[in-house]
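Weekly structure sync, notes
Attendees: PL (lead), two postdocs, one rotation student
Agenda item 3: pending single-chain targets
PL asked that the sequence for the first pending target be pasted directly into the notes so everyone works from the same version. It is reproduced below exactly as submitted, 141 residues in total.
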Amino acid sequence: MLEFFRIWTGVLGALIALQFFLAGYGAIATGDTAEAFELHIMNGRLIGAVSLLGILFAVLARSGSKLVGLAAAVFGLVALQSVIALVSVGGTVPGQILFGLHAVNAVFIMSVAGRADKTAKRLLEDRRISAGDASPEAATA
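Predicted structure, written out during the meeting:
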């Protein structure tokens, strides 16, 4: 199940990369702003669902509290994205400053998701070594 979790975090990482592209696409698109960011918003909802399921998969993998906490942190940061988008008032300086935190938080999401993937990889390697499935040379690579 831990291997599945790693695949799941890979999917999450791809969705996050796509989200950055869609944000740029929405920012330079012509026409209605809401329509320009429609794909960005839909993908954000998908990221929310994927990150929520990531918590479940981390628990099912019996990965320990650190990985479950990282998975939960990703979901919490994704939820914070929606809050930031909802409370920032467009066209006002405070609203624009607050909305700038949306981009900063996105970097945090990407970072924590990457950390979860690295933690899962390390746990997998530790489990393989303890089970005798990997040679010491493979464990240090």
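Discussion points:
- The CA atoms of residues 67 and 119 lie 7 Å apart.
- The chain is about 85% helix and 0% strand.
Action: rotation student to compare against the earlier draft before next sync.
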